[in-house]
Amino acid sequence: MTQENKTVCPLCQGKKIIAGTCECNAEWRGTQKGEDWEECQCSPEQQCEMCKGTGYIDSEKKCS
After folding, report:
1. Angle at CA of residue 19, ends 50 and 52, nearest 5°
2. What is the pLDDT of residues 24-60, one digit of tens each?
3. What are phi and psi of 8, to 5 degrees?
4. CB 29 within 8 A of CB 37
5. Which member of 4, 48, 56, 59 has the lowest number of beta carbons within 10 Å of its beta carbon?
6. Which residues have a Cβ under 8 Å from the Cβ of 2 and sit 6 or more positions away?
């Protein structure tokens, strides 16, 4: 009988995605929409590379 041992992914902490981040700075201006300037640049959410979007990784521990 095979038992799968799964551990919560340490990179995304079981959330399956890595949240995007935003950086804002009034000294530099990114893009202009109409007459307003957007002073923040954001990266999109990404699927976790370590667990491939499952939220868990297989532990390498095996029972003897």
Report:
1. 25
2. 877 766 677 778 777 788 899 999 999 999 999 987 5
3. -60, 135
4. yes
5. 4
6. none
